[in-house]
Specification:
177 residues, alpha/beta, Alpha/beta knot, seven-stranded parallel β-sheet, 6 helices, globular
Length: 177
């Protein structure tokens, strides 16, 4: 096997990216502290053509060198909006017809391998603070919770890892159905 060179990867230009049809998925970051996590969400969002990232509460916004360090420019291709309060972002999404899920361990959550999506619908997923998770009051606003099964001694994943798993799964279920 021969590794591909960057010139062989058929990458979209930023202009082509902006014009490309997007996955009907919004990623909401609820008080995410780590700028590296924020940058990683942008980069993964770029890879799988998500619509937009909502940055809420204490979550930092571009331009910022630490976001850029992991986003590698994806903060300039993936659309984003800032909301001082996550509840306002969720209300806006619901009014626009999105099905909103918190990514959280909760009573009655749907395990990720059991998730079924309708590719005709629009979705939003909320990822929470690195210590406290998604605010309970925000979980209460959601249409449901999605849980990534975990089997070891740690029952939490880094925000950037969680976003990668979730965005990839939504891409598979919506794009390939």
């Amino acid at each position: 096997m021969k590794k591909l060179k960057i010139t062989e990867m058929n990458r979209l230009s930023p202009e082509e990216f902006k014009a490309t049809s997007k996955l009907p998925l919004v990623v909401v970051l609820d008080n995410v502290r780590s700028l590296h996590n924020v940058g990683s969400v942008f980069r993964t969002g770029d890879a799988f053509l998500i619509e937009v990232v909502y940055l809420c509460g204490i979550t930092s916004t571009p331009p910022h060198a630490e976001i850029h360090k992991t986003a590698l420019g994806a903060e300039n291709t993936v659309d984003w909006q800032y909301f001082e309060d996550t509840h306002i972002a969720v209300n806006q999404l619901k009014k626009a017809g999105y099905t909103v899920f918190a990514i959280e361990q909760a009573v009655g959550s749907t395990l990720l391998p059991e998730l079924e999506l309708n590719k005709e619908n629009k979705y939003a997923v909320i990822l929470g603070n690195e210590v406290k998770g998604v605010q309970q009051s925000v979980v209460d606003q959601c249409d449901g919770c999605i849980e990534i099964p975990q089997y070891g001694t740690k029952h939490s994943l880094n925000v950037s890892v969680t976003s990668g798993i979730i965005i990839w799964e939504f891409f598979k279920l919506i794009h390939n159905s």
